[in-house]
Recover the amino acids of this structure.
């Protein structure tokens, strides 16, 4: 099994694909209990037909379809940016075992910032959370993308 940094590098590669497509560069990878990558995705909400096409949502959908099950109990998610409230709710609904993210999202994050969804009384599943994995690399992709937009 790979370590957190190796899986995060795969998520970063997906974030770079998003940037190359002029999308907000967020990438996500989901692994199963054996450490096998079962889905990879990146944001497509800006130029697609649905603003909710965040990397996490797309990766969870693909993983559930691939496994043929409605929940992802023994799976772990690697994402380059702290999930927003929508994605955090989806993570809880899908019963992801562990969430590992790189850069914090002070404005739109909902895990350790903002509403802190997993600490909410209405949250029905709290995954294990690890933050800051390759945070500088993850943050730099976003900073460069938005700097180039200005």
């Amino acid at each position: 099994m790979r370590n957190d940094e190796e899986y995060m590098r795969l998520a970063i590669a997906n974030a770079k694909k998003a940037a190359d497509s002029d999308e907000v560069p967020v990438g996500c990878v989901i692994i199963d209990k054996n450490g096998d990558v079962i889905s990879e995705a990146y944001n497509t909400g800006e130029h697609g037909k649905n603003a909710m096409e965040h990397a996490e949502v797309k990766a969870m959908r693909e993983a559930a379809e691939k496994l043929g099950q409605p929940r992802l109990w023994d799976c772990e998610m690697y994402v380059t940016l702290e999930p927003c409230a929508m994605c955090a709710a989806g993570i809880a609904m899908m019963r992801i075992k562990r969430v590992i993210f790189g850069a914090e999202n002070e404005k739109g994050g909902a895990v350790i910032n903002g509403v802190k969804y997993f600490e909410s009384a209405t949250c029905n599943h709290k995954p294990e959370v690890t933050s800051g994995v390759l945070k500088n690399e993850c943050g730099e992709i976003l900073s460069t993308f938005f700097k180039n937009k200005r």
